[in-house]
Amino acid sequence: MKQLFVDIRKDWDLYLALIPGIAFLILFKYTPMYGIVIAFKDFNIFQGMAASPWVGLKHFERLLTSPGFLQVFQNTLFISIYKIVFLFPLPIIVAIMMNELKNMIFKRSVQTIVYLPHFLSWVIVGGLFIDLLSVNGGLVNKMIVALGGEPVRFFLDSDVFRSLIITSAGWKEVGWSTIIYLAALTGIDPQLYEAAKIDGANKWKQTLHITLPGLIPIIVLMFILRLGSLLEAGTEQILVMYNPSVYNVADVIGTYVYRVGLGEQNYSFSTAVGLFESVIAFFLIITGNRLSRKYLQRGIW
């Protein structure tokens, strides 16, 4: 403790700069945690949080025994796993390909075009995809019909909707993740590539033995963080694009909480669902980090 005060007196200006960030965390991250108690009460908006009666684990029991929640949980896992399998490797591949571009003007132009969709809201992206894929007048269905096919009901067909979710998420977010990997590539020593060329290594071998190992730390970091959001399958995205016709394949935990919490005004149950999601996310991050440190000798901490 004495050493702490010595450090503060020595670098008081740096510690002073920490105050706004710490205040933000306390005010907007830790203080709202008090609301977790709603999950253990029959919350009544008129009685308030303190006066509402305690019910223990009643809402968690309802959660785990609800047949509807099992379907929602499965949908969440399927969509998240699909996104990891199909979308997680894409930014790495795109970053490696873009890193090989020698014309800087062309490279920067491609980079801008690729990550620009990230700055569009899901409302705009959803509207774009609805216009493109609509059965009535959508450009894609017009092309399908022109080629002799039948119009595809992208937003109403349960067999197609998950693919639409993955595709639209990839179009919007792959470019932004690519920037992260491009930044990591700048940290690889160019002399390693020069030495590899002298030894006769082609581009594939350079990528396999220099580029990918150099990206391993950031890949591990991004993967562990992605595990933490495994039960966040893209609530905002799905809310904008789904409808009752595809609830059986697209209703995820986030949309379920939104419908039950706000639609049915069942705040205690929706809080219990949210707390369940957070606990699972915490467990996944801890487990992923431990496995990474055990087998790759790398981790977030």
UniProtKB/TrEMBL annotation:
Domain ABC transmembrane type-1, first and last residues per copy: 73-288
Biological process annotations from GO: transmembrane transport
Membrane-spanning residues: 12-30, 77-98, 119-140, 207-225, 267-288
Any matching Pfam family: BPD_transp_1
CDD domains hit by this protein: TM_PBP2 (cd06261)
Major location category of this protein: membrane
Residues forming coiled coils: none
Membrane found in the keyword field: yes
Keywords: Cell membrane, Membrane, Transmembrane, Transmembrane helix, Transport
Topology relative to the membrane: Multi-pass membrane protein
Name recorded for this polypeptide: Multiple-sugar transport system permease YteP
Biological source species: Paenibacillus abyssi
